[in-house]
Design goal:
By secondary structure, this protein is mainly alpha-helical. It contains 15 helices and no strands.
Length: 302
């Protein structure tokens, strides 16, 4: 019911804007984002992945190395990024807190896990063989290997992702992100980058890490839910720059903040809880399988 209320509020807000004579969300020149720092990475990642998978499948056969369902995950994850960062949701997010929260949750709980599952390493196959060898050789450098192992340790990745979430929601930083496009870009990069590390650490670890993954997902759902509750029960708006235009969308600043808090608390929490239950189910199902020892997650490196 609460999620439905959020969606209804967004739809009603869009109609209120249109009737009030404001810019309509379909005005691509105004409400769509065409910033090079957003468009270029999106376009480049999409082209590299498609080319890499095509070359890999040409050599190994369709479905080898990267499964068809993993390609579908990449498509969904990539389109989620477009919806969050390019489509009018980003424009509305600068004016409505609940829309901004939806944008962030798409980055962290939808796009990031889908792209991790999709095996983005396939992008390397789009590069010349000499480049692939050079990049692969970097992974053999001791300092690089140790740094990557540290960053993708479940405990470290969970702490980094949690720290990014709480630090950027400090009122001075959050309001600064709304007034400076480059700070806003850095905020999104931090959220998305730490989310990629978080999901990579949990979804592509060793079999024996299933239990740890369930724990870290549960811990993440608790602290993100607590932050959402703080927004939902606060008696005054916490972000002046974010909620100042809420009245134009048919909401009071406090109502806008409460809807954003509910969105972070419940739907995002469901994603973490669902992932934890799925991994717990795999853990139980495979615990008695002799062939599972030393293997990888089904969503991992196969």
């Amino acid at each position: 019911m609460r999620l439905a209320a959020v969606l209804v509020a967004l739809l009603a807000a869009a109609e209120a804007q249109a009737h009030a004579g404001h810019v309509h969300w379909t005005d691509a020149g105004t409400t769509w984002t065409w910033s090079p720092q957003v468009i270029i990475p999106l376009a480049l990642s999409g082209v590299l992945y498609v080319m890499g998978v095509a070359r890999l499948w040409h050599r190994a056969g369709i479905g080898r190395g990267v499964r068809i369902w993993q390609v579908a995950c990449f498509a969904l994850g990539w389109m989620s990024l477009v919806f969050a960062l390019v489509a009018p949701l980003h424009w509305v997010g600068g004016r409505l807190f609940v829309a901004h929260m939806l944008e962030h949750e798409i980055l962290m709980t939808a796009a990031a896990p889908l792209l991790v599952i999709a095996r983005p390493v396939a992008m390397l196959w789009a590069l010349p063989q000499r480049w692939r060898r050079s990049i692969g050789g970097l992974g053999q450098v001791a300092a690089v290997a140790r740094s990557w192992a540290w960053l993708t340790c479940p405990a470290v990745a969970t702490l980094l992702h949690g720290a990014a979430l709480w630090v950027w929601h400090a009122p001075p930083l959050y309001d600064a992100a709304l007034t400076d496009p480059w700070i806003h870009w850095l905020q999104h990069v931090t959220f998305f980058g730490t989310a990629l590390l978080f999901w990579r650490a949990l979804l592509q670890g060793r079999e024996q890490a299933y239990g740890a993954a369930v724990f870290y997902l549960f811990a993440t759902s608790l602290h993100t839910g607590f932050l959402g509750i703080l927004f939902a029960i606060a008696r005054r708006p916490l972000y002046s720059a974010q909620t100042v235009g809420a009245a134009e969308w048919g909401l009071s600043p406090l109502e806008d903040q409460q809807l954003a808090g509910l969105l972070m608390w419940i739907p995002a929490g469901i994603v973490y809880a669902g992932a934890a239950l799925a991994l717990a189910g795999l853990w139980i199902a495979r615990s008695g399988s002799p062939g599972s020892r030393g293997g990888y997650h089904a969503m991992g490196a196969r």
